[in-house]
Amino acid sequence: MLTLLDFVERCCGILPRRDGDLWVSGLVTPMVQHDVAATATSYGRSHAGVHYELHVSRAGCVLVADGAELATFPPGVRLVLRDGEVAEVVGLTARTVTGRLTLPGRTVDVAVAGNERWEVRGAPRKVAERGVIAPR
User: Fold this and answer.
1) Residue percentage of the chain with pLDDT more than 70
2) What is the DSSP letter of 35?
């Protein structure tokens, strides 16, 4: 059960990390039992005195903190929160994910490739470009 919970939190959930970061991952689940496509998922978790809710669908992801919308973002990326603030965006899919990241008071256009990390506090800047290794 713990393995399943860890998997869910890494793909479409909220995962506290030992370094103090909070990962908020917005992957849309492609299939569930009996070839029925999942249309949306929601996940809730309390961390450091804040209750977070994550709603993920093909249309987009919404992160709510203590009842207030903290961010909206395209599916296929992970938000990295530091001290309760969105600090980075990480690409989770082999394709480049494009869309808008909406934060309190500002909107950032994003184009994030697989395993690419962008700092979004202040002016957006790429901080890592590991890339995806495709199977042969």
Assistant:
1) 93
2) G
User: How much is the mean pLDDT over the chain?
Assistant: 88
Find the helix or strand (DSSP H, E) in which 136 lies. Answer: none
Would you say residue 12 lies in a domain? Answer: yes
Contacts of 58 (CB under 8 A, 6+ apart): 28, 39, 40, 75
**CB 49 within 8 Å of CB 35:** no
Query: Quick check: is 87 in a domain?
Result: yes
3-state SS assignment for residue 11: helix
Q: What are phi and psi of 11, to 5 degrees?
A: -100, -50
Spell out the long-range contacts of 58-67 with Cβ–Cβ below 8 A and sequence spacing 24 or more: 58/28, 60/99, 61/26, 63/24
Q: What does the alpha-carbon distance between residue 94 and residue 80 come to, in Å, rounded to a whole number?
A: 19
Average pLDDT estimate for 22-40: 71
Q: What is the domain count for the chain?
A: 1
pTM recorded for the entire structure: 0.87
Confirm whether 47 is domain-assigned: yes
Residue-wise pLDDT for 61-72, tens only, equals 999 999 999 999
